């Protein structure tokens, strides 16, 4: 009997209210049937993981969860380990940043032979399980995609490699992998890359040769009809009915975020006393259930986003000190501009020129804020948020379209429901400390 959390809400596991969208799911399944690599992108909590796990169950493929410290060598070692290949330890060249034992790119790979010992999920040979001659050592260079692909073929791996949180990698690491990805596509090793960004051709910006070798699947936008289908499917699972007025108000309150919508409907069900599938069909008609849920979620999101905005505002990456004058403190002014502009200014993105002008108008050294300072500020946003442990990131700069965009879909809900003046007053002004 399905429980409420199995049907509605944001979950690491697929929820039973998942609905297929022809323009998204069909594009993804067509991409699986092709010979190309797949990029799935969009704001956080918009269904990237749900889409991929629906058609490529994670437990049947090789999943790599990336972090800001993951290097390309780390990535390849994890992929090989999960396929049953162990990298011989003992190297003193610690070029990897995340593995337990450092290793250089030139290493020995240990693969099990037919009838050999058991290799664990991390690639380690279990003690006492191997007999002499059960494994083969092969010298490889982890910097060469050819060697990685050949090893996976040697162990008979035909699994997809799913790279979660690709946006966490540094630009340099993303660029390095973008060139390797071209080689992997030719070698027949298939990747699905999930990233929190909203612009097209993100990977192709690093390597133009990828244009005809990848298929991009954006998970946004969500249509109102899709939200209604989610409710219809989920209420069928729980044997309940939710009044149309509540559903429509929830759609309006979610600001096109399926994650927010799922949480609102889940809250409405909980307020109505629905914890699991009902034996007798139950109706939920009280709009107050939604109103209380909105207040609760606004408080939840406010706590997280306010901390994140304070962390961004405290960043000093832009420098700009001049004689006895204080630094530029551009991250602080960026946060002010976003909050003072509110939902109407940010929901379609903010143009770089507009950002520059708004910051100069309120800046303590407005005439000193140059175009190059703005470039440094916007180019460093991803790294600043990673350093401040803001996960998922809230904002991202699309350099191709020169547009600052929100990439955490809950932020719209937050900025529409928050007391902006209180939040602005709570963010420390770095000029006071200076």
SSE arrangement:
Layout: H1 4-7, H2 22-33, E1 37-41, H3 48-55, E2 62-65, H4 72-82, E3 86-87, E4 106-112, E5 135-141, H5 145-154, E6 161-164, H6 171-187, E7 191-195, E8 214-218, H7 224-238, E9 240-242, H8 244-254, H9 258-271, E10 282-284, H10 287-313, H11 330-346, E11 350-351, H12 352-362, H13 371-379, H14 381-387, E12 395-398, E13 403-406, H15 410-417, H16 420-426, H17 430-433
Parallel strand pairs: 1-7, 1-8, 2-6, 6-7, 9-10
Antiparallel strand pairs: 3-4, 4-5, 11-13, 12-13
What oligomeric state best describes the polypeptide chains here? single chain
Give the beta-strand count.
13
Number of helical segments?
Answer: 17
Binned strand content: 5-15%
Give a description of the structure.
With about 425 residues, this protein is of the alpha/beta class. The protein has three domains: about 5-220, Rossmann fold (3-Layer(aba) Sandwich), CATH 3.40.50; about 225-300, Helicase, Ruva Protein, domain 3 (Orthogonal Bundle); about 305-410 and about 415-434, no CATH class. It is about 45% helix and about 15% strand. The protein contains 17 helices and 13 strands. A hairpin with a 4-residue loop joins strand 12 (about 395-400) and strand 13. It is flat. Residues about 90-105 and about 115-130 have low confidence and may be disordered.
């Amino acid at each position: 009997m399905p429980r409420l959390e199995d049907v509605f809400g944001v979950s690491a596991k697929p929820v039973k209210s998942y609905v297929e969208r022809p323009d998204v799911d069909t594009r993804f399944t067509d991409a699986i049937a092709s010979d190309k690599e797949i990029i799935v992108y969009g704001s956080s909590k918009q269904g990237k993981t749900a889409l991929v796990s629906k058609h490529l169950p994670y437990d049947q493929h090789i999943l790599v969860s990336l972090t800001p410290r993951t290097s390309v060598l780390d990535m390849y070692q994890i992929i090989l380990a999960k396929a049953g290949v162990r990298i011989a330890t003992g190297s003193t060249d610690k070029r990897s940043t995340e593995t337990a034992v450092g290793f250089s790119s030139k290493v020995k790979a240990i693969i099990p032979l037919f009838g050999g010992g058991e290799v664990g999920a991390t690639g380690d040979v279990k003690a006492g399980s191997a007999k002499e001659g059960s494994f083969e050592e092969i010298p490889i260079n982890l910097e060469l995609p050819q060697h990685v692909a050949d090893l996976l073929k040697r162990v008979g791996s035909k699994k997809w490699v799913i790279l979660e949180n690709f946006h966490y990698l540094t630009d340099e690491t993303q660029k390095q992998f973008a060139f390797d990805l071209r080689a992997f596509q030719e070698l027949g090793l298939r990747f699905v890359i999930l990233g929190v960004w909203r612009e097209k051709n993100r990977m192709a910006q690093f390597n133009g040769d990828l244009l005809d070798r990848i298929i991009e699947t954006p998970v946004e936008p969500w249509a109102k009809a899709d939200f209604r289908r989610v409710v219809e499917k989920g209420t069928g699972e729980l044997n309940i009915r939710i009044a149309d007025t509540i559903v429509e108000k929830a759609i309006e309150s979610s600001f096109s975020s399926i994650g927010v919508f799922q949480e609102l409907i889940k809250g409405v069900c909980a307020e109505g006393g629905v914890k699991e599938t009902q034996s007798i069909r139950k109706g939920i008609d009280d709009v107050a259930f939604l109103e209380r849920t909105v207040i609760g979620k606004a408080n939840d999101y406010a706590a997280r986003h306010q901390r994140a905005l304070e962390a961004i505002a405290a960043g000093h990456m832009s420098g700009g000190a001049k004689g006895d004058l204080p630094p530029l403190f551009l991250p602080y002014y960026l946060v002010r501009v976003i909050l003072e502009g509110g939902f109407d200014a940010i929901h379609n993105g903010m143009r770089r020129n507009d950002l520059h002008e708004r910051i100069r108008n309120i800046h303590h050294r407005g005439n000193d804020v140059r175009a190059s300072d703005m470039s440094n500020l916007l180019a460093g946003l991803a790294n600043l948020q990673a350093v401040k442990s803001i996960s998922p990131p809230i904002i991202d700069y699309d350099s191709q379209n020169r547009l600052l965009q929100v990439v955490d879909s809950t932020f719209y809900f937050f900025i529409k429901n928050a007391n902006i003046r209180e939040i602005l007053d709570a963010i420390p002004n770095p000029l006071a400390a200076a």
